[in-house]
Write a sequence for this structure.
């Protein structure tokens, strides 16, 4: 993890350092968020891009859906991305548990699908603004693929857009974006510094046992937990003190 985490700290400085190869015809790929189904930790969105004439090289490098790879394999592939920076570009964006909870619990709810769409669009726009020439976009769908594809096609008329289920298992460079997102999330979880006194470090914060052990009757859960998830809402109703506003 040390090498992977070092790569992530470098990301803030050069995530949009555009190589000459990426100013030619370029595919841009976005993977769905890492951490979407679970009640704790951030959600991380990633994109990866490379010239059209180098897209097949990613398959030869061994990229596959991050969910089918173990941690060691994902870290190795992130290192492969970093060492091939002459033609592979990538970026991630992190939504903290607090961002997610506040968005989903506000009066005018901002749901998970909308967050995913807007974050992906922002990543794509930032890449384009940095000088990446986008001609094809491949996205792993969040929600119905047809409406999501139509939305992206309207926003990026210069590119051919493909939105489909399981894109991270169909297109190697989508797999690369998925790996960037997953390794980022894993690094954040492992390096998490609890602000709350008495909060327990965890191996798997997604277990009900860990949530039960760390619920406070007044303050609820540590900041790593998403208060807007159904699992956490049920535990709060069961274990926390009721409040009338």
């Amino acid at each position: 993890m040390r090498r992977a985490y070092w790569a992530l700290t470098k990301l803030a400085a050069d995530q949009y350092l555009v190589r000459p190869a990426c100013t030619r015809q370029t595919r841009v790929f976005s993977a769905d968020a890492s951490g979407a189904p679970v009640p704790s930790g951030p959600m991380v969105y990633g994109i990866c891009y490379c010239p059209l004439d180098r897209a097949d090289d990613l398959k030869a490098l061994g990229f596959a859906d991050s969910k089918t790879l173990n941690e060691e394999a994902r870290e190795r592939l992130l290192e492969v991305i970093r060492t091939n920076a002459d033609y592979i570009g990538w970026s991630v964006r992190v939504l903290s548990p607090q961002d997610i909870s506040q968005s989903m619990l506000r009066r005018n709810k901002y749901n998970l699908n909308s967050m995913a769409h807007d974050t992906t669009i922002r990543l794509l726009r930032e890449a384009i603004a940095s000088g990446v020439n986008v001609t094809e976009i491949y996205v792993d769908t969040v929600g119905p693929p047809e409406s999501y594809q139509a939305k992206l096609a309207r926003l990026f008329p210069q590119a051919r857009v493909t939105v489909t289920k399981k894109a991270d298992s169909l297109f190697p460079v989508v797999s690369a974006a998925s790996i960037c997102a997953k390794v980022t999330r894993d690094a954040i979880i492992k390096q998490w510094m609890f602000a709350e006194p008495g909060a327990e470090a965890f191996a798997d914060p997604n277990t009900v046992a860990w949530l039960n052990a760390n619920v406070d009757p007044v303050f609820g859960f540590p900041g790593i937990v998403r208060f807007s998830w159904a699992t956490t809402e049920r535990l709060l109703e069961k274990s926390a003190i009721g409040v009338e506003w």
Remarks:
- Residues 172-190 form the longest helix (19 residues).
- The radius of gyration is 19 Å.
- The first strand starts at residue 26 and ends at 34.
- The chain has two domains: 2-190, 196-245.
